Amino acid sequence: MRRGRHRPPRIREQGTERVALGARISRGFVRSPSMHVGNPQPVLDLGTPVALLCTMEEDGSLHLAAVTSAWWMGPRCVLGLHDVSRASANLRRTREVVVNMPAAGQAETVARLIRVAGRAAVPDGGPERGYRCARDRIGILGLTPVPSETVRPPRVSECPIQLEAVLDDVHAPAPGSPLPGDVAIFEVRVTRLHLDASVLADGRPDRIDPDRWRPLIMGSP
Ligand SMILES: Cc1cc2nc3c(=O)[nH]c(=O)nc-3n(C[C@H](O)[C@H](O)[C@H](O)COP(=O)(O)O)c2cc1C
């Protein structure tokens, strides 16, 4: 979850190392005698893959939003969304979403998305700082919507992983959390998976090869 709209997060291509089970650990997070010990920040920016969510607006137009609060549990995806966002409103109303995963090489595109507000909520001093408001974010970024097979929101053709999904449940953060009211936890079920050949394991059309898939990681500003 972002800490605020006014401070763009740093998007980077991140070097990764692998452990035996195929999980990734970032360089710099290895244990060392000088390891920092402290209290958790309000937001733990551990560096998680960026996803681009496609949802449908009430007027039938497409809404595109970048999120990093996304993780997977079997055929399900769990999304943490600001509950005042268009993505949240659209997902609650239509119960459909496409979760697109950009690759590391698409950092520049996602960085440009940060400066295009989907509605009239450009930060103070926005235009001078390169922010603007436009509904057609996907067109401005030069991305291509392609029809989905099981849901109405289209997929983003340029993303190597595209997950069509439907909303199964919405959860509230635990009582006492600093987040209640601000965010909601959406549990979506993947109904169709589209994988680019570049991320597939040899001879396994249904398996992602972790050595080929290079996710775009968001780091703290
Ligand atoms: C890299 C990045 C990560 C973000 N992660 C989240 C997130 O996990 N959850 C969320 O609700 N918004 C996240 N945002 C903000 C949304 O993309 C979006 O700007 C916000 O929901 C308000 O826009 P909207 O009302 O048009 O949806 C992120 C933005 C960026 C650029």
From TrEMBL:
One of its GO terms (molecular function) is FMN binding. InterPro entries: Flavin_Rdtase-like_dom, Flavoredoxin, Split_barrel_FMN-bd. Its cofactor is FMN. SMART domains: Flavin_Reduct (SM00903). Keywords: Flavoprotein. Residues 43-208 form the Flavin reductase like domain. Belongs to the flavoredoxin family. This is Flavin reductase family protein. The lineage of its organism: Bacteria, Pseudomonadati, Pseudomonadota, Alphaproteobacteria, Hyphomicrobiales.
